[in-house]
Amino acid sequence: MFMALSDRLDLVNPSEIRKLFDLAQGIEGLISLGIGEPDFDTPEHIREYAKEALDKGMTHYSPNAGLMMLREAVAKKLKEQNGIEADPSREIMILTGANQAFLMGLAAFLRDGEEVLIPSPMFVTYAPAVTLAGGRPVEVPTYEENEFRLSVDDLEKKVTEKTRALIINSPNNPTGAVLTKKDLEEIADFAVEHDLMVFSDEVYEHFVYGVKHHSIGALNGMFERTITVNGFSKTFAMTGWRLGFVAAPSWIIEKMTRFQMYNSTCPVTFAQYAAAKALEDERSWKAVEDMRREYERRRNLVLERLNGMGLPTVKPKGAFYIFPRVRDTGLTDREFSELMLKEAKVAVVPGGAFGRSGLGYIRISYATSYEQLEEAMDRMEKVLEERKLV
Fold first, then answer.
1. CATH entry, 59-281, from 3.30.70.260, 3.40.390.10, 3.40.640.10, 3.30.230.10
2. DSSP assignment, residue 31?
C-alpha cells in the first residue's frame, strides 16, 4: 500500500528527550544532564575564520554538495585519520548537520518495506529516518554484559530477505560503547554476506578513552557499501553551525546531492569556509584533545559516583554519555527520571527513549561542568537514600 510522507510523519513521535525537557521548563535550579551538547564554546580561531569569510563576501550559495575547499579538507582528514580514500569531487558531501545523512542516505537506495537493522539502545534519529524513508526499522539488542557492543550473533537473529541496510554508531550514543576493530571486521563480513549497505555514525570519534577509534569504511572492500557519517558539532563544539559530512560511493552522493538541492540547497557558505580552515589548523586539534581530557575526567567522576550509590554502570569507552542501570531501584526508567526531575532537580533521560534495550536504564550526559556534575551526583544520591531505593 502506498503511503504518503504526511502519513509517515504521523508514525514518527516527538523525541522522548524533548518531552522530558518540556517537563523541565520552569524548574528553578535545575541541573540538566540530558542534552548531548558540548558545554564548550566553538574555539575562538574557528569563530574568527567565519568572520573572515563574511568579510570576504562569502554570503552566497555554495554548490549543493558543499564548497570544494571543505570537501578537499574532509578528504585529507579522512585519509590521514581514518584510512578512508574518498574523491572530494564525487564521494564526499557536506550536509546541514550530520543528522541529514540518515534520511537522505536511506532515500538513495531503500525501497518501500525494506528493513534496516539498528543496534539498540540507539540514537533517537535512526528509526524515524528509516520510517520516513519508507522502510521498517528493526531493533537489534545489545547487552550490558557485552559493554553494549553489537554482536554478529544478534544481527543474525534479526536479518531477513527484506534486510537492506545496517546502522552502526561507534562511539555510541547513548551507551558510550566503542566497537573494536575485530567487532567491525565481523560486522563487515556480515554486511558482505547479506549484501547490506552500512551507515557508520562516527560523530564522537575523537572522544575515546583508552581505546582507538576504527572506521568500517576503511576495511578492505567496504567503502563501496558504507556511508560514513560525521560532522563538526561534537568535534569542534560547533552544534549551532549545523555542519556535517558524508563519504560514500559516488552513486549515493549523487542522489543525496539531488535531495539536498530540493531541500536545504546547501549548508551555510561562510560556516563551510570556517570548517575547512579549522580542519587544517593545529589549534583545532589541540582544542579537541583538551576537550577529550576534560570529558575523561568527568566520566571518571560520574562512573565512580553512580557505582558508589548503587546504580550499576558499565565504564563507557567513548562519547560523553554514561548509561547506568536503574531498574534495581524498583522504578521504571521513566519513573526514575521523573523522580530525579522533581525531587533532585536533575534532568536525566529515560533509557526507553533509545529503544527497547534501553528500558531499565537512564542516559546521563557529562558534557557539563565538573562542579555541576558533583552537585548533580550529590542530589541524586540524597534522593535515593531518603527514598531507600538502593
1. 3.40.640.10
2. E
Question: What's residue 11's pLDDT?
Answer: 86
- Whole-structure pTM value: 0.95
Span 87-133, pLDDT tens digits: 999 999 999 999 999 999 999 999 999 999 999 999 999 999 999 99
pLDDT digits (tens, 9 = 90+) for 75-90: 999 999 999 999 999 9
Which regions of the chain carry the CATH code 3.40.640.10? 59-281
Return the residue matching grid coordinates 558539532: 233
| H or E element that contains 200 | strand 197-201
Hey, what amino acid is at 46?
A: I
DSSP state of 12: S
Rama region for 37: left / alpha / beta (φ>0; ψ in -120 to 50; rest): beta
Nearest Cα to Cα of residue 228 among 180, 276, 167, 171: 167
The reply to whether CATH 3.40.50.11310 applies to domain 5-42+284-384 is: no
Contacts of 7 (CB under 8 A, 6+ apart): none
Report the C-alpha gap between 365 and 299 in whole angstroms: 9
